[in-house]
Amino acid sequence: MLDVDGVICDFLTPALDAIERLTGRRPPDDRYQILDGYTDYEKADCWAAMNAPGFCAGLNPYEGARAFVDALRSLGRVVFATAPMKGPTWEGERRRWLLDHMGAAWGDVASVADKSLVGGVAILEDSPGHMRAWAEAHPEGLAMLWHAPYNAGDLALPHGERAHDYNEAFDLVARHIEALERGDGR
Ligand SMILES: [Mg+2]
C-alpha cells in the first residue's frame, strides 16, 4: 500500500510555493506541518489555495515514481491510500491523477486519513504517525518510512524500516515477500 503525497506525488513544492505567494514567507522544508507558525488568517488562505479546483490535478509525480509503481506490480497488487483534503473536487482529482499518472485501477484508491484501516503486506508512508499506526495495526506487515527532511529527526522506528529511495523500498518489499513465502516473516 502506497501513500501518495510526499512519496510518489510532489505536493510539497507547489504547496510551499502557494504559501510563499500568499504570505510572503516560505516555510522551511523540514517540518511535516507546513503551516505551523502562520496566523489563522494565513492558514485559511493557504488551505483555500491547496483545496481549490485544479491544485491536486496539477501536481507532478516524482521522477521515477511510475517506474517504481510498475516494478512493485511485479510483486503484487498496488493500492494507494491518500488522506483527502476538503476541496470540492479534490478527491476526484486525486483518483484521476492516480489513474493517469500511476495506472491505478479505479477501485484501488483508498481515500482515508487513518491508513491503519487499509491492509496489505507493506506500507510506504512519509508520515511517522501514519506509519507507526499502520505498523501497530498490522504487526505482520512491513512498515516503511519514506525518508524526507521533515521526518529525518524521527529516529524511533521500532516496527519498521526507513527507505531512502525507490530501489531500497522495492528491495525491502521483495525481501519481505520472500520471507513470507519461506514462512519466516516478521
Ligand atoms: Mg504522505
Q: Could you give a quick summary of the protein structure above?
A:
The protein is an alpha/beta fold and 186 residues long. The protein contains six helices and eight strands, in the order ββααβαβαββαββα.
Task: Give a description of the structure.
α1 (12-23) crosses α2 (40-51). The chain folds into 2 domains: 11-51, no CATH class; 61-182, Rossmann fold (3-Layer(aba) Sandwich). β6 (122-125), α5 (128-137) and β7 (142-146) form a beta-alpha-beta unit. The protein contains 6 helices and 8 strands. The protein is globular and about 55 Å long. With 186 residues, it is α/β, with parallel strands linked by helices. The chain starts with a strand and ends with a helix. Magnesium ion is lined by residues 3, 5-7, 126-127.
Q: By helix and strand content, what is the structural category?
A: alpha/beta
One letter per element, helices H and strands E, the order comes to EEHHEHEHEEHEEH
The CATH first-level class of the largest domain comes to: Alpha Beta
Radius of gyration: 17 Å
Query: How widely separated are the two ends?
Result: 17 Å
Helix content: 25-40%
The best one-word shape is: globular
| Hetero compounds | magnesium ion
DSSP strand tally: 8
CATH topology of the largest domain: Rossmann fold
β-strand amount: 5-15%
- Mean pLDDT level: 93
- Specify the CATH architecture of the largest domain: 3-Layer(aba) Sandwich
Strand order of the largest sheet: 1-4-5
Number of helices: 6
Reported for the largest beta sheet, the result is: 3 strands, parallel
List low-confidence stretches: none
